[in-house]
């Protein structure tokens, strides 16, 4: 099971490290290994959240996520995305940006760093909406009940998550604008860019998440109708309709996963520049890490880990919320990537330990008093 799920990750690791040695010797080998560990540590919460979505999808779409999805993640986000950012912000052609990345690495790094406010605003708003929509939903199982119960009641107010996100974006952009004004207006134009990028992140979440939810709801309705009218569902026409609907739902959930992964990868791509500004080594190291995150996602689904440790998904969403805030803060202040990674790891470890305690309480109480144990085991 372990080899089947992580087999491709092991193979990509071996190929990536060998390629690094041929490209830049043992120094390059060490840099790629460090980048891979960095990506895995920063994106573990991504795997947990992805698993919550992926478990709703068929084995076919899980395979698509591991194959086509990883190509998008590795080549799209870790290789093409930084080049596109440089091309857009520096107003140059893609080929010029590639030439810059290969031949003038210091200038390339500077241009990507200059684009960080826009990247952070887009990713921060997208991740913040994921966290707020999760925390405002009324759930049967709650982890930090003293927070989640009152917020679930507040969540009944329509569009509250959108309003809060816009307020956070406005505060961030105004703070950035005030800082630019105090320092001679050198970054005054970027304050507007932050605002536009943040709104774009919000719109992206609402469009992709909305379409995913819409088709998922329609799929559930179709399955209910099939269950109630089994004989009707046996007709070939209705079966074809259900299959098409399932494909639509799975496609938009896959699209949602890719945008989610892109938002998670922002901090990894930016953080990688603290280690190297070589785009080839960056793509190799972050690509290896991205492959492990994807394999881990599938492993969590197939092992039923989220069902066994029910607070893991909560911890991952709190880590998302923390990452969203950190991204927004980094528009104005510099935060070390170690802190970003540790926050996520601590929250997920805490939620895992809470899940273990809950399971022990349920086991000790027995099936007859399971509900009572569930109430008493919340944090």
From TrEMBL:
InterPro entries: DUF475
Key words of the record: Membrane, Transmembrane, Transmembrane helix
Entry keyword rRNA-binding: no
Short name of any one Pfam family annotated for the protein: DUF475
Transmembrane segments: 6-38, 64-90, 115-136, 157-181, 193-215, 241-257, 269-294, 315-333, 339-356
PANTHER family per the UniProt record, alphabetical: MEMBRANE BOUND PREDICTED REDOX MODULATOR, SLL1022 PROTEIN
Listed name of the protein: DUF475 domain-containing protein
């Amino acid at each position: 099971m372990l080899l089947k799920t992580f087999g491709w990750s092991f193979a990509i690791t071996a190929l990536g490290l060998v390629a690094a040695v041929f490209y830049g010797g043992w120094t390059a080998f060490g840099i790629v290994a460090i980048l891979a560990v960095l990506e895995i540590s920063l994106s573990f919460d991504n795997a947990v959240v992805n698993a919550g979505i992926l478990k709703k999808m068929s084995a076919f779409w899980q395979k698509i996520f591991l194959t086509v999805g990883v190509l998008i993640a590795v080549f799209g986000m870790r290789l093409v995305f930084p080049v596109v950012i440089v091309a857009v912000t520096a107003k140059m052609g893609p080929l010029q940006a590639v030439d810059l990345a290969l031949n003038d690495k210091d200038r390339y790094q500077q241009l990507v760093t200059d684009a960080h406010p826009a990247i952070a605003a887009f990713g921060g708003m997208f991740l913040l909406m994921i966290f707020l929509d999760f925390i405002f939903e009324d759930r049967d199982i709650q982890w930090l009940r003293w927070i989640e119960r009152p917020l679930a009641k507040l969540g009944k107010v329509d569009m509250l998550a959108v309003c809060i996100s816009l307020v956070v974006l406005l505060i961030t952009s105004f703070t950035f604008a005030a800082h630019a004004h105090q320092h001679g207006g050198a970054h005054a134009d970027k304050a507007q860019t932050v605002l536009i990028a943040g709104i774009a992140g919000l719109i992206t979440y609402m469009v992709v998440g909305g379409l995913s939810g819409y088709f998922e709801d329609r799929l559930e309705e179709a399955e209910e109708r099939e269950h109630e009218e089994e004989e009707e569902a046996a007709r070939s026409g209705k079966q074809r309709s259900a299959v098409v609907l399932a494909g639509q739902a799975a496609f938009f959930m896959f699209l949602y996963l890719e945008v989610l992964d892109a938002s998670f990868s922002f901090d990894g791509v930016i953080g990688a520049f603290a280690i190297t500004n070589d785009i080839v080594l960056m793509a190799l190291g972050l690509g290896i890490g991205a492959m492990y995150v994807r394999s881990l996602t599938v492993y969590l689904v197939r092992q039923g880990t989220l069902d066994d440790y029910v607070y893991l998904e909560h911890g991952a969403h709190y880590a998302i919320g923390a990452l969203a805030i950190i991204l927004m803060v980094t528009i104005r202040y510099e935060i070390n990537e170690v802190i970003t990674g540790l926050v996520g790891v601590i929250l997920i470890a805490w939620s895992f330990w809470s899940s273990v305690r809950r399971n022990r309480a349920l086991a000790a109480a027995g099936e007859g008093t399971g509900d009572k144990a569930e109430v008493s085991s919340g944090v």
